[in-house]
Amino acid sequence: MATPGYSNHRTLIQRRLRRIEGQVRGLQNMIEQDRYCIEVLDQISATTRALQSVAIELLDDHIGHCVANAISEGGDAKDDKISEATAAIARLVRS
Q1: What are the extents of the domains in the chain?
Q2: Considering only the top CATH level, what class is 10-94?
Q3: Full-prediction pTM beyond 0.90?
Q4: pLDDT (tens digit, 9 = 90+) per residue, 3-22?
């Protein structure tokens, strides 16, 4: 299996995901504490933006590493990786 594009900064991504995990736990606490709806919605928005930011970074890594390598190798692998990246972008846009 090929090395993921994010391998060089895996620790940074894990740290960001742990922070997002903390945000989600904070959201659960806000509901338990009957916090005002708008405050909860604001925190959901911030958490969503944080996840989107990680997704964009991973997509950038995928294109810069996995897709670029496949293009340099040519053949069917190139077309497969481009299709894979396009599908990932479509899923992100729809989310």
Answers
A1: 10-94
A2: mainly alpha
A3: no
A4: 888 888 899 999 999 999 99
